[in-house]
């Protein structure tokens, strides 16, 4: 594709976005008004769908297609990093140097790692009930796992980090979100329309598809961040040029 053609496509898309953005801005409520139609609709939708956390109701219900786009971007970024950082022909893998860790740091990491993983899982599962959700909980899970590297060494992290499994779960999480959306179409409704029982308000099984979508995002984000960091850590600690001394 030539530079002129790429520039033309960009300017066409930018013009379309600018027109729709300007049109949306002119239809916004006046500044300082007490009328907030979007907020009112969000609260009503959350109560109607038995979702205790209005923010999760917005992310996984009112604007669930946007969330699908964000999750897809995350998946594409991880895939791109894996492809770009793969080992080249002139590179070789070497074992990381053992690190010297002070006993208090090792003890802190050993106690904090399971606590961080449990907290991350709690944030993902309770996304429909309290602040949090799949994105936040997934990042907590990924960073919590890396306490094994901070408090011990890279060899410990490699033992508790099954990359082959995480590569699969990253794709499974992304596909699960799309499959839940297609369930709405198969039921005769719209894409990502709720097809699950609403349950009892303020319980783990309430909110219809909201908790399921939160878990799918948590799996994808947690696995994706771990795989992404693995590529950078491998490059920094294990991959060496064959002619390097």
Structure report:
By secondary structure, the chain is mainly α. The chain has one domain (3-241). The protein is built from ten helices and two strands; from the N terminus they run H-H-H-H-E-H-H-H-H-H-H-E. The protein has helices spanning 3-26, 37-48, 54-62, 64-84, 103-125, 134-145, 147-151, 154-160, 163-186, 210-237; strands at residues 91-93, 239-241. It has a two-stranded antiparallel sheet with strand order 1-2. Helix 4 packs antiparallel against helix 9 (163-186) and helix 5 runs antiparallel to helix 6. The longest helix is centred in the last third of the chain and has 28 residues, at 210-237. The mean pLDDT is 87.
User: Strand tally, please?
Assistant: 2
Q: What number of structural domains do the residues give?
A: 1
Biggest sheet, in brief?
A: 2 strands, antiparallel
The percentage helix is 55-70%
Strand content: under 5%
User: How large is the radius of gyration?
Assistant: 22 Å
What is the 3D shape? globular
> Residue ranges: pLDDT <50 for 5 or more in a row?
none
Structural class: mainly alpha
- Average pLDDT for all residues: 87
For the termini, the CA-CA separation is 42 Å
Would you list the SSEs in sequence order as H and E? Answer: HHHHEHHHHHHE
Contiguous helical run count = 10
Strand arrangement within the widest β-sheet reads 1-2
